[in-house]
Amino acid sequence: MEILRPIDIQQQLIKERNKTVKDEEILGWVYSVLSKEESSNLSILNRLTNSPIERNLNNFDIDKVDTDAIFHISQIQKICGDYRLRFLDTKYFKGNYPVEVMSKIEALEKEHETTLDGFKIIAPSKLFRLDKADDPLLFAPMGNGYFYLIHKWGTDLHPMRKVKYWAVKNVENMGISIFVTSLLLTILTMKFFSTDTFNMGYNVVLFLFYFKGILGMIFFYGAASGKNFSEYCWASKYDKIT
Fold first, then answer.
1. What gap in Å lies between CA 131 and CA 140, rounded to an integer?
2. Beta strand pairing status for 146-152 and 70-72?
3. How open is the CA angle 221-88-130, to the nearest 5 degrees?
């Protein structure tokens, strides 16, 4: 019986589509939809690659924002300092943007009835020069030092990254690291240079030798490479100290 035949969903979809769109209009309809989407994506991508274009503030509907996506500049600075990341305008970003970024920006703009600008991004410094894939986070400024997290993509940061860059976070951490390293080297090597069981004067001299040697090498490397402490370079657009 006709009524008991299996339903072909594809055919049902075609029938439903044909109620409003004729066969000869299908290609034109699809082209029109795709063209609008492509045009929208190109507009968003243009703003991302050149942001900020006109302004550094955006008007969000406060009743529609996700409070879990709002972060203050002081919190961003702390995280960037801990993990040696940069927080820069997207015009300096050299990585690729996934399709989800375009979709989320378009959805946000429709929801808040605005056009976003002044995009900023958190990423490792190399990602602003090389095409890497380490955990970028895209933000839009809200004003008064607050930023709205739009999207996060890429791979997560290595769990030991904070430990890896702890010594270069600031001057204090660097001093502690040099002191501890010099002390350990002194303890490990003092028996190789002295037959005495314990000689305070000799050990102090050996400690100072290591301390000054390590300090000298770090200053030499820092000056040669132009590197700076994380707490000073997190918002710098320059790769080297200027």
1. 22
2. antiparallel
3. 60
Q: Can you read off the two tokens belonging to residue 93?
A: 């970003």
Rounded CA-CA distance 10/12 in Å is 5
pLDDT tens across the length of the chain (242 residues): 554 455 444 455 555 555 655 555 554 555 554 444 445 666 888 888 888 888 888 888 888 888 888 888 888 888 888 888 888 888 888 888 888 888 899 999 999 999 899 999 988 877 775 444 456 888 888 888 888 888 887 666 667 777 778 887 878 888 888 899 988 988 888 777 665 666 777 788 888 888 888 888 887 776 666 677 777 676 666 555 54
Domain range annotation of the chain: 8-158, 169-226
Q: Which long-range contacts (CB under 8 A, 24 or more apart) does 70-76 make?
A: 70/142, 70/146, 70/147, 70/148, 70/149, 71/139, 71/146, 71/147, 71/149, 72/145, 72/146, 72/147, 73/145, 73/146, 73/147, 74/145, 76/122, 76/139, 76/147
Beta partners for residue 123, in sequence order: 86
Q: Rounded to whole angstroms, how far apart are CA atoms 4 and 150?
A: 50
State the alpha helices, DSSP H only, in the chain: 9-18, 23-50, 73-83, 99-112, 161-164, 171-193, 200-225, 230-233
DSSP 44: H
Question: Which residue is it, tokens 């990423």?
Answer: 123
Q: What pTM did the predictor assign?
A: 0.57
Residue in this structure with the two tokens 């490479």, named with its chain if needed: 225
